[in-house]
TrEMBL record:
GO terms of molecular function: DNA binding; DNA-directed DNA polymerase activity
Crossover junction endonuclease MUS81-like HHH domain ranges (all copies): 99-168
Gene Ontology CC: one annotated term: nucleus
The protein's name in its UniProt record: Crossover junction endonuclease MUS81-like HHH domain-containing protein
Region ranges (Disordered): 69-103
Compositional bias of kind Basic and acidic residues: 69-86
Gene Ontology annotations of biological process type: base-excision repair; double-strand break repair via nonhomologous end joining
Pfam family, one: HHH_8
Catalytic residues, chain numbering: 159
Amino acid sequence: MSKKIVTKEAANELLEKCKNEGIRVPTDHTNALIQAGIVLKTTSEKDEFNWDSALNAMTQEFGVLKIGKEHKTSDAKDEGKSELKPTKKKKPAKATNPENQELSEAFTELAGFEFKRGERFKGMANSRAAKSIRDTEEKIESGDVAMHLKGIGKGSAKKIDEFLKNGKIEKLEDYRVGNMH
């Protein structure tokens, strides 16, 4: 069997182990396989897969699934305890102009999805747009007007107009329902 096929099967097995251990993985299966393959290659020793190291690396990279308001800690798993630790929900930063709050939060959430997809540059662009929207004292009334702010380009301006017209950004709505393509 070729090394590529073995690695792909091992990546599927690692994803299954992650599922059983409550470890988060990317929602897009292809991306999840790629990430699992990378982790397996970086944690393997002498061409043998080190499953414990791979699971720890996946936990560090993606975190654990929430169970209600709590989640398993990796330390508790390692020590054989079933200790649960509460998770903290991060509060969104307050916009200088409260009328821009929802728009800023939409861009922040969109940035988070882009980072999860591995789209670092799109994630940074949306993060910069969210910060600019959050920090401006003026009410954002159109994408064209917002383009004078640092971090707002043509793409962000289109999303701003879409949000102001429809109350949502279609790409963000797609990500929310799991369409990460």
